[in-house]
Amino acid sequence: MIVVGGTSSGTSNGIYTNGSKNKNFYYNTILTTGENATTAKAVYVNGQYSVDPENNANFNFQNNIVMADYGIPLYNSVGGIIKCDNNNYYSVNNATIVHWDGSNATSLTSLQALNSDDANSISDDPLFESDTYPFDVHITESSPCIDNAVAITGITDDIEGDLRNPDIGADEFESSLPVTWLEFKVICEGDSHFVYWSTASEMNNDEYLIQRSYDAVNFETVGKIEGVGNTLRTKEYTYLIENFSNNKQYYKIVQVDLDGTREESKIVSVDCNYKKFQIFPNPTTGGDVFIVSNDDYKALDLMISDSQGKMVYSSNCNLTSGLNKLKLNLGLKSGTYVLNIK
Known about the structure:
Largest sheet: 7 strands, antiparallel
Number of helices: 1
Helix content: under 10%
Shape: elongated
Distance between the termini: 56 Å
């Protein structure tokens, strides 16, 4: 992590490189600051490099956050084969995000036209803990850099020794919570219970225990699913429990850390003598949607509208009594949508 700058009008660089051998720059976080530092460069590449046969490039620049208050995030004064991708180029007060061999790029589109690379790079505020004095360039939980890097062989830890997920930059965001719960449901499916839950993030997660009770007090473990360890991506889990009693029952999920620490979900109840129409998950990130009904439908119309009432999807499908799974890989933008079933 590098922070450079000040109030002087002199030139300052976060990283300056000039040489003849190939160079690899991975997972750096550089911020140049200061209102008079208009010529500052977070990274200044000056000089031709020999080609690295492994990457077919003479300069490899990947998974870096380069941010400038008034200067230029990346200044490349030479040509050659330079591999750049999965970076975040962000300038607060300068229209130029990258200077590339004599030309200025003011957007990712113009940058990609110049270097035919950076297909997976972004240009967004990295959302540091603090980008003003006293500086703290650790990324926060809302940072667009989270999960936007590409794994580099041989690099498994961040600057502080935390496991790479990986995020863009020197710091790997680490949630303070072992699991961030999103949704937890238990559905009647024939003579079985369909247990579903989802999480927004997991940290040091070893496994989940599915527990059941008949009085909401005394629980027993009826199933187990392995966790994914560490992730900041949404994960969905399902578990089928067969041959249950129709009496009202209660379920909870127990999350177990790698060190044995436990955290419990909320308790949900299920009564298969009373079933209703349900749709989940909600919200959804796309993909599979589950619909539970206690009636059979034929030639059913399914319509999805956006927040303005404009229909963005329609289809005809059949629902049967119990659990139905619909695949809705629609590629819709994030937002609020209304699902109508007739």
